[in-house]
């Protein structure tokens, strides 16, 4: 791994205690050490265990080539001002369980520049985001077993006004094996997948498609919906219409899925991702009614939900 030659603090040696009362001698030489540690930590970064913000211009950052960052939340952000050297981002969320596969997704900040972001495992680096490639909506996902994050500053003659940063989310609903933007597959969901999506999705609604707009620069399509029945929503994506005749909102999917406007009611399910609603399973509502009733008659429905 390039740049990963020194990872610990160096040069902190307590001064030889001078004359004074014997009982104060340990305190006299400990005090400069404590002040150095506290002062360096305060100037080096700020962190609330969910997000980290640091600067490559601090005295401490210049004394070692690799900075270790520790985060313990499922959602947060990393912001690195004037990047120099490298960062190793250690994600150890409190909700982490080895028994349940987890996927980490990162989304570069819109003005991110000054460093490359890699996936690192046992010294091997896989480039995720090249310096300056922070196109709108660019998201990369990978499983925890695929490695961790290594952020390396690129050589710059002038590092002024450069900031490297990204948001991150830990999810358990996307395989992430292909390092692609998480969304439902373009293929239709099976009956079992639909019934499970009803129980586990961040939003479940009944509605119709008003319009579909495509955003080639983001490789995304936005599906604008009129919602007649709101079963569940984790965030307030769908809001009451001005005339009070239901709800309205939009969900996002991949452009390659080729979504088009269609008549009739659908059951829309999906997950929140970086503040946006991403489409999961979306069968026609009459098909959902059939599969729900069939599963209930056989006692196979994973959760209760009125099909009407």
UniProtKB/TrEMBL annotation:
Transmembrane segments: none annotated. GO terms for cellular component: extracellular space. Belongs to the meteorin family. InterPro entries: Meteorin-like. The keyword Secreted applies. This is Meteorin-like protein. GO terms for molecular function: hormone activity. Residues 1-43 form the signal peptide. It comes from Erinaceus europaeus. GO terms for biological process: energy homeostasis; positive regulation of brown fat cell differentiation. Keywords: Disulfide bond, Hormone, Secreted, Signal. The keyword Signal applies. It is found in: Secreted.
């Amino acid at each position: 791994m390039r740049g990963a030659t020194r990872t610990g603090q160096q040069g902190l040696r307590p001064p030889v205690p001078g004359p004074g009362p014997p009982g104060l001698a340990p305190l006299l030489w400990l005090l400069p050490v404590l002040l150095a540690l506290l002062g360096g930590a305060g100037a080096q970064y700020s962190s609330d265990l969910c997000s980290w913000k640091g600067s490559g211009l601090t005295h401490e950052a210049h004394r070692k080539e690799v900075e270790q960052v520790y985060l313990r939340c499922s959602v947060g952000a990393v912001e690195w001002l004037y990047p120099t050297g490298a960062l190793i981002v250690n994600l150890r969320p409190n909700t982490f369980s080895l028994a349940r596969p987890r996927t980490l997704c990162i989304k570069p900040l819109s003005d991110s520049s000054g460093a490359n972001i890699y996936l690192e495992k046992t010294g091997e680096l896989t480039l995720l985001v090249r310096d300056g490639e922070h196109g709108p909506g660019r998201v990369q996902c990978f499983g925890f077993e695929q490695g961790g994050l290594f952020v390396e500053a690129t050589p710059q003659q002038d590092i002024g006004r450069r900031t490297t940063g990204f948001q991150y989310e830990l999810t358990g609903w996307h395989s992430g094996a292909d390092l692609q933007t998480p969304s439902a597959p373009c293929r239709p969901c099976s009956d079992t997948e639909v019934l499970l999506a009803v129980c586990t999705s961040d939003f479940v609604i009944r509605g119709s498609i008003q319009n579909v707009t495509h955003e080639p620069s983001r490789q995304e399509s936005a599906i604008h919906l009129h919602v007649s029945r709101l079963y569940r929503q984790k965030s307030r994506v769908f809001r009451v219409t001005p005339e009070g005749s239901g709800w309205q909102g939009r969900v996002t999917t991949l452009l390659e899925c080729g979504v088009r406007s269609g008549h009739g009611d659908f059951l829309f399910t999906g997950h929140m991702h970086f503040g946006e609603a991403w489409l999961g399973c979306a069968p026609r509502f009459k098909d959902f009614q059939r599969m729900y009733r069939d599963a209930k008659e056989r006692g196979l429905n994973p959760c209760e939900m009125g099909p009407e």
